Amino acid sequence: MSLKLGVPSKGRLMEKTFDWFSQRGIGLGRSGSEREYAGYVQGIDNVELVLLSAGEIPRELAAGRINLGVTGTDLVREKLGQWDLRVRELALLGFGQADLVLAVPGCWVDVNSLDDLDAAAAAFRLKHGFRLRIATKYHRLVREFLRDNGVADYQLVDSQGATEGTVKNETAEAIADITSTGDTLRANHLKILEDGLILRSQATLFKSRVAVMDEDDRRSLAALLQKLKVD
Ligand SMILES: Nc1ncnc2c1ncn2[C@@H]1O[C@H](COP(=O)(O)OP(=O)(O)OP(=O)(O)O)[C@@H](O)[C@H]1O
Ligand SMILES: O=P(O)(O)OC[C@H]1O[C@H](OP(=O)(O)OP(=O)(O)O)[C@H](O)[C@@H]1O
């Protein structure tokens, strides 16, 4: 068997992950044609690169199909219930930073906090006969956050992309999404609630707690982590 390392298959996360490993003496890269999802690992034996969508890496770790994986903390916490029983954080990688936030229309001058949102949500339901809609793809994290903060009178609507556009399109009144520069929120006339930070995320190296390893895998893992200076 070989130790399987799951890495995002495209974009900035992939490139920065390759850079991070390269700075520590491990060469990762894509091989084959530009469109072929095959990869190589240099500088260590018995480690296999598995190129995957960042969003699928949590599930693959939790199923034990990969031993190690790089993805955003937001995706692990959203996709895995009791995530810390299924994976272990080995290292924060210092890139891919994004904040998951709750935002409302900038013109809602009386709504600046979660308490204000709670009051607005109750008033909204009375006026419109349905619950205030929050668009997001982070269902688990948003539900837990609002439950912990005593906001109940809302409904989630699923939005898998262009989430900030849902308010203008009148399919939601508020949104919960990741932001890094804040440009997309500003361009869509949305403001973050002052206590609306749900999670700070960054790219992280995770280890599966359930993947089965033989003796060779254990040796490879120890050698890899030593090279990466991670324990
Ligand atoms: N500005 C940003 N926009 C989008 N994602 C960001 C940004 N900054 C950091 N990230 C992180 O990148 C990860 C998402 O990466 P990506 O969009 O490649 O994943 P994905 O949803 O699996 O993509 P796909 O399904 O298209 O392969 C998340 O962990 C997210 O927090
Ligand atoms: O704060 P900013 O720097 O403006 O970045 C935030 C935006 O980036 C992401 O979208 P992405 O472009 O990945 O597309 P998506 O809408 O499909 O998620 C995210 O969903 C926000 O919309």
Automatic annotation (TrEMBL):
Keywords, comma-separated and alphabetical: Amino-acid biosynthesis, Glycosyltransferase, Histidine biosynthesis, Transferase
SUPFAM superfamilies: Periplasmic binding protein-like II (SSF53850)
Domain of life: Bacteria
Alphabetical GO biological process terms: L-histidine biosynthetic process
Keyword Transferase: yes
Cellular component terms per the entry's GO annotation: cytoplasm
UniProt cross-references to InterPro entries, sorted A to Z: ATP_PRibTrfase_cat, ATP_PRibTrfase_HisG
Pathway entry: Amino-acid biosynthesis; L-histidine biosynthesis; L-histidine from 5-phospho-alpha-D-ribose 1-diphosphate: step 1/9
The enzyme's E.C. designation: 2.4.2.17
A UniProt-annotated Pfam family: HisG
Top-level EC class: transferase
Domain ATP phosphoribosyltransferase catalytic: 54-228
Catalysed conversion reaction: 1-(5-phospho-beta-D-ribosyl)-ATP + diphosphate = 5-phospho-alpha-D-ribose 1-diphosphate + ATP
GO molecular function: ATP phosphoribosyltransferase activity
Keyword Transferase: yes
Recorded coiled-coil stretches: none
Summary of the function given for this chain in its UniProt record: Catalyzes the condensation of ATP and 5-phosphoribose 1-diphosphate to form N'-(5'-phosphoribosyl)-ATP (PR-ATP). Has a crucial role in the pathway because the rate of histidine biosynthesis seems to be controlled primarily by regulation of HisG enzymatic activity.
NCBIfam families assigned to the protein according to its UniProt record, in alphabetical order: hisG (TIGR00070)
The protein's name in its UniProt record: ATP phosphoribosyltransferase
Protein encoded by which gene: hisG
